[in-house]
Write the structure tokens for this entry.
Amino acid sequence: VSPEKALLNGFLKQSANEDRMLPQSHREVEGINLGGGVYSHPKWLNLDTRDGIQSGENQFHFDFSKKRPLPAANGSVKYVYSSHCFEHLDDPTIEYLLKESHRVLEDGGTLVLKLPDFEKARESYLAKDYGFFVRKWGIEKLEHNWLTHGVQPNLTNYLLMIFCSYAEMGAGSLYKEERSGVYYGPPKIAKATVDSKLKELSIKAFSDFLNAQVPTEAHFRGHQNAMSLEDMITRINEVGFTAIAGFRQSYSHTSFDAIDRALGPGELAKMQDISMYLIARKAS
């Protein structure tokens, strides 16, 4: 048995419901969805770290780290897709996941990344455009928690929540209705400082600045990494991919057609108006 096959078999045995959760045959898996939440498709392997989410037939609890390989053989899948996942990861983990994505993709295989459009968030904040922030991110459900801890639900803190958020130890999950009274939200920074740094720094540098303001005893449950479309293109090129196209709030390019069909109806279009898209290929 090859090392890659042994890795996949060992990974699958972690689940007590292996037969039910595994796609019809792992040899038929054509894509891996990184951080897919409730996504389910018989020909996709969905890897996610979130507890308490039922994701149909093919979600496995998978802790993303810079030391855990993806459970697939070299050159074994056509697609790797990730939607609103990479912003939850630190830089070493992102770099490792991109290298692993390159490894598991077949020659000519496709990588598609979808992340929050942080450039649009900055533009909208500076223009005082509330439309980008309200009723699109699920932040409203946290406003009571914020007020309890002296954090106002205003445009500044909405912006900060998209760039950087954290939970105090013991806080409930954003994805569950029940939450404890401990704080879950953005770093507590004065508006004047936010405005100055946002104008002065790049998207990535602003993200790093915010993360440096998070209390050392806190643990992350939300966003901890922000980047521009240009940043992502640089990152994927560094691990051997070739960027094909990048779009903000759209994916109107024929290169997306095949993976759009493979993912299933509506998946690629979710959160389109707050997202940026990047498609790349592994050299043939």
User: Anything to note?
Assistant: Confidence is low (pLDDT under 50) at residues 1-5, 11-25. The chain is about 30% helix and 20% strand. The beta strands are 31-34, 44-48, 59-61, 77-83, 105-116, 166-167, 184-185, 241-248, 275-282. Residues 99 and 239 are 6 Å apart (CA to CA).
